[in-house]
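Quick question, first post here. What does this chain look like in 3D?
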Amino acid sequence: MRVLVTGATGFIGRALVPALQREGHDVVALVRSTARARARLGAQVTLLEDDGRQAALAAAVAGCDAVVNLAGEPVVGPRWTAARKRALVESRVGLTGRLATAIVAAPKPPAVFISSSAVGVYGNSGTDRLTEEAAPGRGFLPDLCLQWEAAARAAASDDTRVALLRIGVVLGRDGGALAQMLPPFSLGLGGPFGHGRQFVPWIHLHDLVSIILTALSDPRYSGVFNAVAPAPVDSRTFARALGQALHRPAVLPVPALALRALLGGAASVLLDSQRVVPARLDALGHPWSFPTLTAALDDILDTSDVEIGPVPVATDRLAPPQADYLRRRPAAYLLRTRTRLEAPLEQTFEFFSRAENLGLITPADMQFRIDGTVPGINTGTIINYRMRVGPLPIRWRTRIARWEPDACFVDSQERGPYRCWYHEHHFRADGTETVMEDRVYYTPPFGLLGRIAHALFIRATLRGIFAHRRDVIRLRFGQTA
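> Answer (accepted):
Ran it through. Tokens below.
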């Protein structure tokens, strides 16, 4: 299929795009900035800039077999002033209405339109078990969701099937609610919101992507679906599970009064109780990779496959190679990770050896982008890029020190934050699969202070970056071990 995706650079979209590519779909992303989207989505996505003109949107829709609508301003954030409410409505109802109009007017309408909604449609429902048949709640958020869904339903016809996904709290490594919760919870300062008895409908990001992929091709996926895991938990249980996963206490509640003072009406997203269950998905036998919160958090927070330790001695096969770069800049540490991919060697090597794809496999909050024109890759190629680590902007210049197609390539830092950074990418065919191994020989700056910083946060940061790479690999190619 040729699939048009809105919200492709967002938290869910960045996971969906590589998964669509794994399934063999051509992806067209409707974006506000093509330069920003290219840096985030990689080389193999067709980008269309939304300039607000309905004619241009109609042309984009007319050339696609399916549309997935994930766009929308974050609900939790600034206070719900009148201006903020208008922005929330326009980013959801306005764009969805434009898409529906374009679908209906298309000479050959897309076969399926998948549009996101939210469990906020149910309002504050206490402990009631909420299937797709439950009545909507009252208030701004339920009304917004109902308008959103009505705008999407306008696209339905004998030619176009419409699936509406009422999405819960999406858990993943590269953004969403969990990214905001991790800093205080990692310090042992986390806890439930308010009294903690309200139910939290949640779903692992990869399970949500799986639902979207299935809905694209399965004609039974029509109408409303609760896109939540089958085991909702209350806020206290959620906080306790996250604390246990991080090996930290999680007993400090965030008072409801403080949340309302800070967020105003938006605090209802955190304080309302919604015991939502995926009744229709379960009836269709949809498989869950992460049906329980413990399984989901263990997967998202796991970095055990990223090994970091002192550089091995010279007699070890993983000792630093005899490269001029490493003789000039000795390495102190070795990072190593190994992955088996469900894809042939030539396909995986081509993806990882394209500089344009670096942004897709880098966490979004690092704001990675390449400076200037992306060069062709070969031995001696220089690539300049910039990123952020926390609040710090970083410029990085790397040289391709070694280039062996379908076997290995090496990039070494010429300018950047490390005294030494020598990254080997090894590839080996194993039948129809590929075994890929990263080895990074590196030394932090500032001598003893750098070693202390390494113990305090550099090691953990690198584990998170390479674990994110693992997640993208899993979505783009599949992973067997």
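The chain has a mean pLDDT of 92.
The first strand starts at residue 2 and ends at 6.
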